[in-house]
Amino acid sequence: MTNISDQTFAKIDFTQNPLEKAEYEECIFDNCVFYAGTLSEITFLNCEFIDCDLSLVTVEATAFREVKFINCKMVGVNFEPANDFGLKLSFKNSNLSHAVFYRKDIRKTQFNNCILHGTDFTQANLSECSFANSDLAGGVFDQTRLEKADFRDAFNFSLVPEKNYMKKAKFSERNLAGLLMHSGIDIS
Prior knowledge:
Blueprint: E1 3-5, E2 8-10, E3 23-25, E4 28-30, E5 43-45, E6 48-50, E7 63-70, E8 88-92, E9 110-112
Parallel strand pairs: 1-3, 2-4, 3-5, 4-6, 5-7, 6-7, 7-8, 8-9
């Protein structure tokens, strides 16, 4: 596999000419469009995606190792088939609505100022993740590992404590309602 390192890819529309299958190391993808394309069988090491549209991309056997997504649109991305080895991601100011992290071990991931509407975290390991200023409306948490996860600045989430592993998860007084919504209690 070809190794491509220390390159910046700016303002490229990869919907017409897909990104070459290779190992990308220390690369920056700035203002690129991958919409509904494929990143399958590609390895990204210490890369950054900035202002990119990755909505509906396919990530079959894709390796994301120390990859940052900043100001990206990633609606509907299914991370389930991504390569698990060394998987380490962070997201800032990004829209991951309807993304799927089913059974993914993404502990310590940072979701800062993100929109996570309807995002599926079923059976994922989110231990020590941070959801600072993130909107989790309609997010699915079922048998999810949330030990030491930080929800103190998150909003619009609804968690059923009995269906998740939440030891030492962090919440603020103002967002505790997200733990009771499922019970039908009227909190005002």
